[in-house]
Amino acid sequence: MPVRAYAGDAGYDLTAAEEVVLAPGGRVAVGTGIAVAIPDGYAGLILPRSGLATRFGISLVNAPGLVDSGYRGELKIPLINHDREDAFEVKVGMRIAQLVLIRTVEARFVAVERLGESADGRGEEGFGSSGE
Fold first, then answer.
1. Strands 74-81, 58-60: parallel, antiparallel or unpaired by DSSP?
2. pLDDT tens digits, residue range 34-75?
3. Rounded distance between C-alpha atoms, residue 27 and residue 62, angstroms
4. Hey, which bits of the chain come out as E strands?
5. CA angle 82, 4, 43 (to 5 degrees)
6. What's the pLDDT at 77?
7. Class of the 12-103 domain?
8. Distance between CA atoms of 105 and 91, rounded to whole angstroms?
């Protein structure tokens, strides 16, 4: 079952249900052996574990992954090995990702000719607009 490492943690650790060897630069979807029923109005985000990323170069191909409330299949974690030289062994029971539950809202989209100004005056400035 997904568990939090510490009280108050946002993420619930997901563990591998199978052994896999990830070659350098390789990708694989690793089964967790669990399925979840996320309530309507919520979604699950699958996030990488920082320890695997910093120590071994292991991350998620599509971080974050999205689990919609209607999905009922097994949670599979799409791992990628960013290390260029060393393979990585995934063992059964190894913590490989985190599940964070978030509230969602239903939006109504409206086509307009022009958007109003933002409160902070940023406008269309995006990447790097707040400095280094």
1. antiparallel
2. 999 999 999 999 999 999 999 999 999 998 999 999 999 999
3. 11
4. 12-15, 20-22, 27-35, 42-47, 58-60, 65-67, 74-81, 88-90, 95-103
5. 75
6. 98
7. mainly beta
8. 37
Nearest CA to 65 out of 47, 39, 41, 83 is that of 47
What is the chain's alpha carbon radius of gyration, rounded to the nearest angstrom?
19
Residue 83 near residue 107 (C-beta atoms within 8 A)? no
Chain center to CA of 130:
25
Q: Determine the Cα angle at 129 with ends 124 and 132, to 5°.
A: 165
- The structure tokens listed for 28 are 């694989």
CB-based burial label for 17 (10 Å; 0-12, 13-18, 19+): middle
87: CB partners within 8 A, 6+ apart:
21, 22, 23, 24, 26, 81
pLDDT band, very low/low/confident/very high, at 131 (cuts 50, 70, 90):
low
Distance CA 95, CA 66 (A): 18
**Bridge partners, 80 (sequence order):** 27, 59
Q: What is this structure's pTM?
A: 0.84
Phi-psi region of 57 (alpha: psi -120 to 50; beta: other; left: phi over 0): left
